[in-house]
Amino acid sequence: MEKTSTVCPFCGCGCNFYLVTDKGRLTGVEPSPQNPVNKGMLCAKGWNSYEFVQSPDRLTTPLVRKNGELAQSTWDEALQIVTAKLLEIREQQGPSALAFLSSAKVTNEENYLFQKMARAVFGTNNVDHCARL
Amino acid sequence: MTNSINEFEDADLFFVTGTNTTAQHPLIGSRMINAVQQGAKLILVDPREIQLAGFATLHLRQNIGTDVAVMNGIMQVIIEEALYDREFVEKRTEGFEELKSVVSRYTPRVVEQITGIKAADIVAAARLYAEADKAMIVYAMGITQHVTGTDNVKTCANLAMLTGHVGRPGTGVNPLRGQNNVQGACDMGALPVVYTGYQKVIDPAVKTKFEQAWQVEGLDDKAGLTITSMMAAAQRGDLKALYIMGENPLMSDPDTRHIELALSNLDFLVVQDIFLTETASLADVVLPAASFAEKSGTYTNTERRVQISHKAVEPPGQARADWEIIQEVCRRAGYPMDYRSPDDILQEINRVTPSYAGITLDRVEKEFGLQWPCPNEDHPGTAYLHKDKFTKGLGTFLPCDFKPLAEVPDEEYDFILTTGRVYYQYHTGTMSRRIELLEREAPEAVVEVNPDDARRLGIRNNDRVELSSRRGTITLKAEITQRVPHKVVFSTFHFREAQVNLLTNPAHDPVSGIPEYKGCAVKIRRCA
Q1: How far apart, in whole angstroms, are the C-alpha atoms of residue A35 and residue A33?
Q2: Is B196 in Cβ contact with A112 (below 8 Å)?
Q3: Among the four residues A126, B160, B213, B221, which has the most C-beta atoms within 10 Å?
Q4: Pairing of strands A25-31, A16-22
Q5: Which residues does chain B have within 8 Å of residue A34's beta carbon, measured at their own beta carbons?
Q6: Is the ipTM of this complex over 0.90?
Q7: All CATH 3.40.228.10 domain ranges in chain B, comma separated
């Protein structure tokens, strides 16, 4: 059994807890008593937050729409389509025809990189996330 | 938040409005209840009888959308009875005369007419708040999700400055952020008008700074589109491609039918997520991402604390961390990137973001996170803001007048629908509905109906009812409860089976772009 320190993925309180793993599988949550935010306490969402991670519904391969249906694909093909389409639209319609929606659920580093991609790579300030919703 | 979660223990009084704290921020809710049990007072301003009402010294149930009038009324009494902090107002603020002139019209009697709150209760709230030594305003989306959201926020700030309840421990204006990294996403510049740390895109010096840091030329110096304007631009055909990471606008945005039209009108939609969400199923390309448990990185909570989260397990199948996917897209688009770990990215954030300059991986590991602003590696971080002066120097009172909801009830749509979340579910349900215990406790969409209204409409508890606005109709279960006042119904946006955002009004605040989820006109009837 191993314990890894993590931050709860639900609300903005930012409670800390340990994810417990056994042979590479998540088995539960243990609170982190020293942490100043939640001092070892958690709500029902936090206590059970490991469960959705191992849901059978998780996406495990890239998907690409072919003949109207989303079909399993490879990273190479999916990323090739993404970059080609974004570059093509920028070329033909200008950068303001592109927009990027970032996420209040991913890390700071990922948000940073996402807005850097929108601005430095594709040339648009059309980048936002769901703070308003 | 201007202040810290630990300061909830120091406050003498909480002024809580537009937050169902025990349901949405349970750990902050329990801090508040503990403080109240130790003797702190609680003024709750909320149309619904939420759990905190049971702990409130005073519960003011305002008519929906009348928040500015409530707080103006409280300020009118505070000025009239000379209960304001004269020294704070003189030394640290400007615009007091303008404030006084605007709020003077909001006498308790006038405010009672607008808000439905008894004049005596307005007076009592004013005295309690002004006379407390350390009073804290706590709010959430009930304040911001209105066409007058910006006015509501300004009015909260006016109230705190008028009484000097800001810039000290246990005081302040404390918006509770709804998602675990919504604060961080804002701080990192995932907004159309700013780079990291709120450095403005229209500022030429800032533009030059980022051009140098990123080794590019000609960064866009005009404000970009907000999410609400993106959807409108897509519907007009001006926006051709949208890249969505970890968001589900088809469930979370108002007036779903129009969102679906907008997304379908795009030439290209790419969605990067951990599940095939409602939005992802419309995409041209779906990229499988790692969840929080499968990657490392930092998150910034509602009190501006940057904390590290570590990787516990491998992602399923071919799923990859979002930062790895973005890096790969950038490389393939011809922009060189070579980050080997999230820490490499954090170091770049430290270099370009003054408020995060001292927030290094080493320090967040050792110190249970750090609260920004933290301008250098020796700085201890900032537990509360505005200590001796405001960021801009003097705090300016920005008085506002009351404006009604964008869509008020009429003869046909005679109820107000207000929306939110419940304790056992979360947002569009993508994560929480895949947790057995949560799904057992709150398995389906429910609309709360007041008993008097229910009797008149012949609706009994657990009946199926049809709820319609000008934009759509949904069918769901009725819960007959005093929690909602007369002529108000409440429901949540967790359930794809009854998408409440088919009904909500996309009218939004002109400054913030936030839609008015907290009030639109609907009608309700029992299903035949």
Answers
A1: 6
A2: yes
A3: A126
A4: antiparallel
A5: 368
A6: yes
A7: 5-176
